[in-house]
Design a protein that fits this description.
Strand content: 15-25%
Largest sheet: 9 strands, mixed
CATH superfamily of the largest domain: Umud Fragment, subunit A
Distance between the termini: 53 Å
Shape: elongated
Helix content: 25-40%
Strand order of the largest sheet: 2-1-3-4-9-5-6-7-8
Number of strands: 9
Structural class: alpha+beta
Length: 270
């Protein structure tokens, strides 16, 4: 567990600074201070090093010790020497490892960061705050991973991580495939996209239909102008044992329901 966000807020409160004042001290945006304190993002190595140097604490203490608790216990004098930077050493080594191709790095967007993703998806500084990882089976490309919550895409369990490849245009969207869709209206969602082959002739080219795999959720349409990003799902990562068990009757019911929904949608679109 990292205490970075909690400790940053503690240090700021001790000095009676606003987030804007702390941001000025660290030479970063005020919104980043808020993201760190609310644990929606992890501070970059450079930011943490600045904090530790400015306030005379070690990286290990900043990351792994509750400074407020230390102060409450009367152990407020924090030694800045002899820091064990195991976590930071690993992160630094990963980012500087020349054997890892940047083309295969996957930026991870956890649930905590999803709320700010719509505003920061095109901001290099915001994206640089997010953790990255690699998957050996990925070919070079533009990938991003999103943590999803909820039961709308069952049998894909809540808490799964969807690894998506960037879709360059609507023409690349394949009917009935699953995608991460980022829109101004709904933020980040994981859905199956239903395309309409005749949409160019009936005025529907400006909308896409999003379908949940869980038949309890109704499909809905989004305006193409509201969509800012689409990522085609290429891998799904979840904990072992998290996959719900469905019997044959349940699966048959889901398939029939999906077929009925698709038929109904086609009638509406034609």
């Amino acid at each position: 567990m990292s205490y970075a966000g909690k400790n940053l807020k503690y240090i700021r409160k001790q000095r009676e600074w606003t987030q804007e004042e702390m941001a000025n001290q660290l030479q970063i945006k005020r919104s980043l201070v808020g993201a760190y304190e609310e644990e929606r993002a992890e501070p970059r190595l450079e930011v943490m090093e600045t904090i530790c140097a400015k306030f005379s604490i070690s990286l290990e203490e900043f990351l792994f010790q509750d400074l407020a608790l230390l102060a409450a216990n009367g152990d407020g004098s924090i030694d800045s020497n002899g820091a064990n930077n195991n976590y930071m050493d690993r992160r630094r080594a990963l980012k500087s490892d020349k054997s890892i191709s940047l083309a295969s790095m996957v930026t991870f967007v956890p649930v905590k960061a999803a709320a700010g993703y719509l505003a920061g998806y095109a901001d290099p500084e915001f994206l640089d705050e997010l953790n990255t990882f690699t998957l050996p089976m990925l070919a070079p490309g533009d990938y991003r991973a999103f943590e999803i919550i909820g039961d709308s895409m069952l049998p894909t369990p809540s808490g799964s991580v969807i690894v998506g490849e960037k879709v360059g245009s609507f023409k690349e969207v394949k009917n009935s495939n699953t995608y991460i869709v980022v829109s101004n209206a709904d933020g980040v969602v994981y859905k199956r996209i239903i395309t309409n082959d005749d949409r160019s002739n009936n005025g529907k080219e400006d909308k896409l239909t999003l379908l949940s795999d869980n038949p309890l959720y109704e499909p809905y349409q989004v305006n193409a102008t509201d969509i800012v990003e689409i990522w085609k799902a290429v891998y799904i990562i979840h904990k072992a044992g998290a996959q719900p068990m469905w019997n044959v009757d349940q699966l048959a019911g889901v398939v029939n329901n999906l077929q009925d929904q698709i038929t109904s949608l086609k009638k509406k679109l034609n």
